[in-house]
Amino acid sequence: xxxxxxxxxxxxxxxxxxxxxxxxxxxxxxxxxxxxxxxxxxxxxxxxxxxxxxxxxxxxxxxxxxxxxxxxxxxxxxxxxxxxxxxxxxxxxxxxxxxxxxxxxxxxxxxxxxxxxxxxxxxxxxxxxxxxxxxxxxxxxxxxxxxxxxxxxxxxxxxxxxxxxxxxxxxxxxxxxxxxxxxxxxxxxxxxxxxxxxxxxxxxxxxxxxxxxxxxxxxxxxxxxxxxxxxxxxxxxxxxxxxxxxxxxxxxxxxxxxxxxxxxxxxxxxxxxxxxxxxxxxxxxxxxxxxxxxxxxxxxxxxx
Length: 304
Known about the structure:
alpha+beta; 15 helices; disordered C terminus
């Protein structure tokens, strides 16, 4: 069984994210990606100073005044109704995740700040569940993409996180700041996009979380790739999929993953991976299971 932190990692505390700026930039970015023909409006070929729909066009589609929408896009979401947000979401062709993000930014709940400050705990029964998943790489993540607990197979695949300081056990830091994770994920760019999209969702739910602000600030300074992806303001949730890995010991792996949100704490997610039966990846998992947490060390020492 791998060593695991008793609670979420602690780290440098920074200032809160500017919720009004986040709301303004998100709406601008969603409006910029739409063209008149995308929403059934005529395009007379007139020169547009900025890409995408004009504010007046978006307001027309949403059925609100231009002044009202302009105030909202300037970050003033006070007293905006759910019906208006729904209309704007439809006009902007937002996904369900983007709609939820807009609602969190425009109508923040007052209790969110206390929730964000409360350390996330992992129940002993959850740790026992992870350890019982023999042959299945699995781990628990919390807010800010923190890695809170994992089993022996997860350590064999992704590295022995128990050897890292708690504040470094974070997917965003690993993906953007650790070169070995660029090598591990065959499609590193997609993994990076997924991480940034999840952080954006967290920012919408917890704009007053100083540790999230500190993480975003650190990554913005240290990673040009993070700055580029953060500026897109994309948000989405990914509950399942396929990951292609390049493990230093067993080579190429194709693993499907499923993500499960916990009912008693929706900010905790259990992610489990599995291989197709009788595939080369399934055989590689069996080999890694026999090596356990020594697999990554052995792979790192092997000739490249």
